[in-house]
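Section 3.1: Structural characterization of target chains.
Under the original work plan, the team committed to producing a structural model for every single-chain target entering the pipeline before any wet-lab resources were allocated. The record below documents one such target. The sequence was received from the expression subgroup and is listed exactly as submitted; it comprises 475 residues.
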Amino acid sequence: MRYGRQRVSLLLVALACASHSIGPASGGGPPGTQDWTRFGWDAGRSNAPPIATGITAANVATLVRQQVALDGTVDASAIYLHRVAVNGSTRDVFFVTTTYGKTLAIDAQNGAVLWRYTPANYASWVGTEQVTTATPVADPNRQFVYAAAPDGAIRKLRVADGRVVWTTAITLLPAREKIASALNYFNGRVIATTTGYIGDAPPYQGHVAVLDGATGNLLSVWNSLCSNRPGLIDPASCSQSGSGIWGRTGAVIDSSNGTIFVATGNGLWDGSTNWGNAALELDADATHLIGNYTPTNTATLSAGDTDVGSTAPVLLGGGLIAQSGKDGLIRVLDWGAMSGVTPHQGGEGQVVSTPSGSGLFSAPAVLRSATGTWLFAADGGGTAAWRLTNGQLQPVWSNRNAGTSPVVADTLLFVYDPGGGLRVYRSDTGVQLANLACGGGHWNTPIVIDGKIALPEGGYSAHATSGVLDIWRLP
């Protein structure tokens, strides 16, 4: 791994201490009283916590990094619970899941591993392509976390000691169907999605699984291919393969009504029972489709492996959805026009380029502030910000720095460069305030909470059984 020297421009830091046009975050409590329970902060995956995180333009240059050695690689994000009981003591704790399914609880103050859960079949997966890149999710009661593993199962683990409460499989063929996307939680239920493994070897189908958080019962499964067949199906029994749900956020929840948004990858789209290469809305129980969109050139995109499934739908508010993909375009959709089971092909309100015009494999961040709604995105060749005006994305700033999923916190934008380094920008101007030194990775995403930043390093393709969690803290 590569570790560069941290560079901070004193002039830029001084400028950043001036007034900020977006305005400070509001809502929630002071640092030390908040949790980060899932990928993307909230059920809608905004990646923009409306709270004071303790990291500001004035102190970002003073952060001190600790590198925590892990017995696994975390190609995902950490989650965080403050002041929870673990091993008989009250602690602030990060939780991570490694590519081969270990889930670890890590003391946020000193980096000590407090407990680890290792699946029984862990040794059989090590060194293979059978992995997970799913971020766990915490129960709102703060007593349990839910985590995925390469066996295609979700487990409920006790925060206090890592013991398993229940285990539920969400695929009948884990050697072909993978849990790649982050888990979500809403109204007592865990929501998970499936996709295929690298190379798209058939058979597999993307599906949305809803589990009862209390009991682990599998309440419903909606299949994006053979969607007329509810429940878990034998992948080989469906005449179509593909249509994986694999974007970093997986299921995006509209918290106003609980409906579920997903995007699918390469696969047949017929507007009837096969919904490959599409942005989709399901009812809150994931039993039926209530909205859908696919590009007019969906067959060409699927044939060329440039599908929209590389990133999930983004809830912009006001009935608007942003949907991007591997083709380097961001489409703004009036979702009211996409409602119902009638197939909707085309009909975009606006189409803009991704930051560098390359495929988007990350989760954009959406900030709602006094100056309106902002969208931030990063791809393999750039980072950019837009402001939503009259239903249109207006460019505000951009640069040529690569990044994964951005996080907006306390008016700062945090973007991890998979080539190494965590850049911190002013979110309104794009002025870079810091580049915090760290190693390279893949889909890793930071969280910023309680005066700390946590960021895993490394990627699943290295097939490693070791890794690093970087924790930056205020001195």
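The first helix runs from residue 10 to 16.
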